[in-house]
Amino acid sequence: MRTICDVCESAVAVLFCAADEAALCRPCDEKVHMCNKLASRHVRVGLADPNKLVRCDICESSPAFFYCDIDGTSLCLSCDMAVHVGGKRTHGRYLLLRQRVEEINQGIWTM
């Protein structure tokens, strides 16, 4: 199953922007993220085989971006914000995509 670009809704998405929570094809990524300096800093990751993506342990549908070492759960952005309120903000949470982000920074997704 292929993911369709959230912007043009016609092309196959090749990357995901966590800040925008959007899957994008290459042309739409260039339009959206090269239009201003702040948007160009968004971390985008290549879309992997959907069967290999880690899913959120709470909603079980969105890609997980964080791991909470106290709760032992993988969480998407929305569920992380809902679960870690108040005192739970002290839980140590880590980006699940660290390795992939480093690969992008080394030039795989050079823009």
UniProtKB/TrEMBL annotation:
PROSITE patterns: ZF_BBOX. GO terms for molecular function: zinc ion binding. One of its GO terms (biological process) is photomorphogenesis. GO terms for cellular component: nucleus. This is B box-type domain-containing protein. Keywords: Metal-binding, Nucleus, Repeat, Repressor, Transcription, Transcription regulation, Zinc, Zinc-finger. PANTHER family: B-BOX ZINC FINGER PROTEIN 22 (PTHR31832), OS09G0527900 PROTEIN (PTHR31832:SF5). InterPro entries: B-box_zinc_finger (IPR051979), CONSTANS-like_Bbox1 (IPR049808), Znf_B-box (IPR000315). It comes from Triticum urartu (Red wild einkorn). Signal peptide: none annotated. Residues 1-47, 51-104 form the B box-type domain. It is found in: Nucleus. It holds the Pfam family zf-B_box. Its main location: nucleus. The keyword Transcription regulation applies.
